[in-house]
Specification:
With about 260 residues, this protein is of the alpha/beta class. It contains 5 helices and 14 strands. The protein has one domain: 2-Layer Sandwich (Endonuclease, Chain A). About 25% of the residues lie in helices and about 25% in strands. The model has no long low-confidence stretch (mean pLDDT about 90). This is PLD phosphodiesterase domain-containing protein.
């Protein structure tokens, strides 16, 4: 069965960069995020590697408004769960949201592979999702080039993404990976069994991947395998946009 869903690309163009009038334009990242929060009636789940929405810089006003909206939702007893590899005491945003009733789930990434959490996604009311490059950081709303997608009313995709969120949640404050994962954390869709759906009346296929391999239970596709799959399926062209391309390991702990 094929389901019809509405999808929107959301984008942040850094201040001072102007494209031609004929260039395609998308919904702003800030407005897309605010739309999701305005739709929230029961729950907001967010995974982000950065939590810095307050700053004195003039372009930080959108981050402040987003933070105030999250505080408002928490005060209305909407369930808010936040996953990060930053301790709440290290982020005023996380600490303030926690004091208002949000559940903050800390992942000790350095205990697993000495890495950082790079996932960035939202789940709202178990119906709507955002997946993209932007973290909860004021720079992502003003000074950085960010791109993401919002899919509305897609419980099937949410089901798969929720399993990654549940996996992250199960690791809160732990310092080792369990010897085996619960079946409830297995992937729902993969490269051989993709979700078939209509996105804005265009026939599409989707599945959710993850990294590193430690975080990939049975049927969960590794990110690099997902990239290979997309390239292998290409019929005419492959367009790639990345922030960095350096195919070696970067020591994030090295002194600069």
């Amino acid at each position: 069965m094929t389901f019809v869903h509405r999808v929107a690309l959301v984008e942040n163009i850094p201040e001072g960069i102007n494209y031609s009038d004929s260039a395609p334009s998308h919904l702003s990242l800030f407005q897309g995020w605010m739309n999701l929060l305005n739709m929230a009636e029961k729950s907001v789940d967010i995974v982000s590697s950065q939590w810095d929405l307050n700053h004195s810089h003039p372009s930080a006003c959108q981050g402040q408004r987003l933070f105030e909206k999250l505080l408002e939702l928490a005060s209305r007893n909407i369930e808010i769960k936040l996953v990060s590899d930053i301790l709440p005491v290290e982020s005023k945003v996380l600490n303030d949201l926690k004091s208002k009733g949000a559940e903050v789930l800390y992942m000790n990434m350095s205990a697993y592979n000495e890495g950082r959490l790079q996932s960035s996604f939202w789940i709202v009311d178990k119906q709507h999702v955002y997946i993209g490059s932007a973290s909860l950081d004021w720079r992502s709303l003003g000074q950085m080039k960010e791109l993401g997608v919002i899919v509305y009313n897609c419980s099937c995709l949410v089901l798969d993404l929720q399993r990654i969120f549940a996996l992250y949640s199960s690791l809160k404050y732990k310092n080792k990976i369990p010897p085996s994962w619960s079946k409830r954390l297995y992937g729902v869709y993969d490269t051989q069994n993709k979700l078939t759906l209509q996105l804005n009346e265009t026939k599409s296929e989707a599945f959710v991947s993850n990294s590193p391999k430690l975080f990939c239970p049975k049927d969960r596709v590794l990110d690099i395998e997902a990239i290979y799959n997309v390239i292998d399926d290409a019929k005419q062209f492959v367009y790639i946009a990345v922030m960095d391309y350096l195919p070696i390991v970067i020591d994030t702990n090295a002194k600069r």
